[in-house]
């Protein structure tokens, strides 16, 4: 058996509600790490974003720990295949975050692109009433599952995930996506855990529509395989409210992070229920008349599609991220990893030295 490394998740530092993101490292990672990975899926050349995410990580470690463990982000493969169920092409990529010297613990990012025309898809193409059984339990949207299977099986993503799992047996697989890409990321994360393809997963989605029913949403969400499961919602983004829970059996998985504003740096947000994906105190508290597609396109002040296509340029512009106050623990005993996890000094030395 491998030696178990003790770590403290950044989530253990986040209890206040609502919160302001200058004091929370996890929010900076959502803004400048996970969201750019999602945006990169919209580009025909995700390396542009990956390179700038790397620059941001380098700057982050310069001010957060004074220790640079020589992380690198490498594009493993990009996938593109026609998806008739979305009336669009499905696209995504796999990337390796070599966060230690021998690579055995390298986190793997698996990212999915959202549809090209949000309004047209959700208003005219998606028939959410078509639901089919899911391998991990419950029922999911047939169109989302068909699209996922196209890129997962027919485009070769599953085979690459298996290859990477065998090469990096201690790795966490992090599934990421915006819009319909978030739905496919959810299906991917649930597939690998329910079928035993990998041991630990993280899931980060932005503007994800409801993907399946309550049984699907609850399947394995709190099990030992889930390192993290988080849905970010921008203010009155309409897509996370589709289809309506009032006239369907669809249900969201945990846990929502809701910004009831423009998501600017320093804006207040709410970290919602860790047991109920449909927390009535979060975005579900909005009146339906306020919901819109404009908020779906913009996350953390960036047009997600254009941001990814243009290469996530602001991450490499020389501005340093905010230094954080971590007085709750002895500063000398902490190390912030590129996963957004605070490791003990002993775990850091085991991983990076």
TrEMBL record:
Gene3D superfamilies: alpha/beta hydrolase. This is Fungal lipase-like domain-containing protein. The keyword Transit peptide does not apply. It comes from the Eukaryota. Keywords: Signal. One of its GO terms (biological process) is lipid metabolic process. SUPFAM superfamilies: alpha/beta-Hydrolases. Residues 1-16 form the signal peptide. Residues 109-244 form the Fungal lipase-type domain. The keyword Signal applies.
């Amino acid at each position: 058996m491998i030696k178990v490394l003790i770590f403290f998740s950044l989530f253990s530092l986040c209890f206040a509600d609502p919160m302001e993101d200058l004091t929370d490292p996890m929010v900076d990672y959502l803004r400048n790490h996970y969201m750019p990975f999602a945006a990169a899926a919209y580009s025909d050349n995700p390396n542009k974003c990956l390179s700038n995410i790397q620059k941001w990580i380098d700057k982050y470690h310069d001010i957060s720990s004074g220790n640079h463990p020589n992380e690198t982000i490498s594009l493993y493969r990009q996938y593109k295949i026609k998806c008739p169920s979305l009336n669009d092409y499905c696209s995504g990529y796999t990337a390796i975050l070599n966060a230690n010297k021998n690579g055995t613990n390298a986190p793997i990012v698996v990212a999915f692109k959202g549809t090209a025309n949000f309004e047209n898809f959700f208003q005219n193409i998606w028939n959410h009433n078509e639901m089919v059984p899911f391998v991990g339990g419950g029922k999911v949207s047939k169109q989302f599952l068909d699209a996922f299977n196209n890129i997962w099986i027919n485009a070769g993503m599953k085979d690459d995930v298996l290859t990477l799992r065998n090469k990096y047996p201690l790795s966490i697989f992090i599934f990421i996506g915006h819009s319909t890409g978030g739905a496919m990321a959810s299906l991917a994360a649930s597939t690998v855990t329910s079928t035993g393809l990998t041991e630990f997963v993280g899931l980060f989605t932005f503007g994800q529509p409801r993907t399946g029913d309550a049984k699907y949403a609850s399947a394995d969400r709190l099990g030992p395989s889930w390192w993290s499961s988080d849905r970010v919602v921008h203010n009155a983004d309409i897509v996370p409210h589709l289809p309506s829970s009032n006239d369907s059996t669809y249900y969201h998985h945990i846990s929502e992070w809701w910004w009831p504003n423009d998501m600017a740096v320093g804006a207040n947000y709410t970290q919602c229920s860790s047991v109920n994906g449909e927390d009535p105190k979060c975005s579900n508290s909005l009146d339906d008349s306020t919901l819109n597609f404009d908020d779906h396109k913009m996350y953390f002040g960036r047009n997600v599609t254009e941001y990814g296509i243009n290469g996530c340029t602001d991450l490499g512009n020389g501005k340093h991220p905010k230094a954080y106050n971590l007085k709750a623990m002895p500063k000398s005993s902490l190390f912030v990893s590129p996963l957004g996890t605070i490791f003990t000094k002993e775990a850091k030395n085991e991983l990076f030295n």
